[in-house]
Every structure is written in structure tokens, then in C-alpha cells.
Design goal:
Structural class: mainly alpha
Helix content: 55-70%
CATH architecture: Orthogonal Bundle
CATH topology: Helix Hairpins
Largest sheet: none
Shape: elongated
Radius of gyration: 17 Å
Number of helices: 3
Length: about 100
């Protein structure tokens, strides 16, 4: 079940952050923009507003993690000796520590 923002509703077994960890950056950011627009437009019940806010926070954290991973990859590429570039797999926990 989805609401006007395209976000998953809070049906049993799901929450406001359902499915967020699988979203690529562009999709997570686009959904974050939709959720923020819905919050800014108002008109929701208190419960719906809280659910939207929780989803926005989860989406914002996902975007931050993905950006941190990308930044770490760029830093690692730039830091290679001799000017050679090589892709390095980065775990999310590595990016969070930077």
C-alpha cells in the first residue's frame, strides 16, 4: 500500500523505513524530495505526518551513507601511489567511520 508520496504505508510487518536500504541514491533522493513536499503541503493527520517524517529521516540517512561511500571511493582512487587508479569495494561501515 502506498500513500500520495509513493511511500509505503505502515501495514503490519512494515515501517516507514521499509525498502529504503535497497534504494540507489537517485531514487532515495527523489523520494526524499516527494516526502518533504508532502510534509510542507500539510493536510495530513498527526500520525501520517509522523510516519512521513520518520521516512524522511530514514531516506536522508540513506542518502548520507551513499554519499559518504562515494566520497571514500574517490579519496581512495586519488590516493593511489604512482597515479594509478583502481576501484575499491567500500563497505557502508567503512564510509561511516570517515
Amino acid at each position: 500500500m502506498t500513500d500520495a508520496t509513493g511511500a509505503a504505508g505502515t501495514t503490519p510487518g512494515t515501517g516507514p523505513d521499509a525498502g529504503i536500504e535497497e534504494l540507489p541514491y537517485d531514487d532515495a533522493f527523489a523520494e526524499l524530495q516527494r516526502v518533504v513536499a508532502a510534509l510542507e503541503s500539510g493536510g495530513q493527520s498527526l500520525e501520517a505526518t509522523i510516519t512521513l517524517y520518520e521516512r524522511a529521516v530514514a531516506l536522508q540517512r540513506r542518502c548520507e551513507r551513499l554519499l559518504a561511500e562515494a566520497e571514500l571511493r574517490v579519496q581512495q582512487l586519488m590516493a593511489r601511489p604512482g597515479g594509478a587508479l583502481a576501484a575499491v569495494d567500500v563497505r557502508p561501515e567503512d564510509a561511516a567511520e570517515e
